[in-house]
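Ticket closed. Logging final result for Undecaprenyl-diphosphatase.
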Amino acid sequence: MHSTDLTVAILAGIVQGIVEWLPVSSQGNLALVLTAVGVEPDVALQLALFLQVGTTLSAATYYRDDLRTALAAVPGWRPRAAYEGENAIASYIVVACLMTGLVGIPLYIFAVDLAGQLTGGVFIAVIGLLLVATGFLQLASESVSMGGHTVPTLGDSILVGAVQGFAILPGISRSGVTTSAFLFRSYEPPAAFRLSFLLSIPASLGAAVLTLLSAGGLPGISPTAAFVALAVSAVVGYLTIDVLMRVVERVPFWAVCFGLGGVAIVGGGVVSVVM
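Final structure:
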């Protein structure tokens, strides 16, 4: 494997392992970094989706008790009691993931096709615009009165799953839009974050599988580089999740989205002019 590929793989793994836990679109920011170091826009988008597998392993380890509870409820799951007791989490994950697939798969096909037609500068600017949109949504969710809901309903599962489907677009933060959706539905912030991250596990695995199938393998990266990137993202993700989750509770990330989005829009415009 070329030393440049290894450097890019390590860099991508570190960036993914950190920004996955922040509501600023890990996919969008990783795609920005990859594009900035010379990776083609459509390949950068696919790699950003694929590398979520690493942080999915981190999240699965961190939330292993919640996952164990959800899996334990599957054998005794009953349709009439789908959203009662321990069945609620399992039902929430299944319904939300189905909705994510219905919304996300068509958007993924559209996004990859569009990215393949855009120059690096325009692609960066588009990500910037979507980051700003994410910032507006998070800002709006801060004005919502804190509720007391902690257990997802069927309607909330459908809503959050559909919203998560839009996060297939680089610049739309998965955790940002799903957590905001829960807050708009009067959920307690800790419950909103927990439910959002639980949903990230099957959603990220599904996105990675979709990427591999659509690209016919690993897009633009060797198996060795992919393994290095995944390993780095998993280790960095596990080491940073607890700290960054506390940071999320204190920092207005709508402002961060505005800042990153603004820089990307201006930077993308400059790159387009220069090129």
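The longest helix spans residues 87-115. No further action required.
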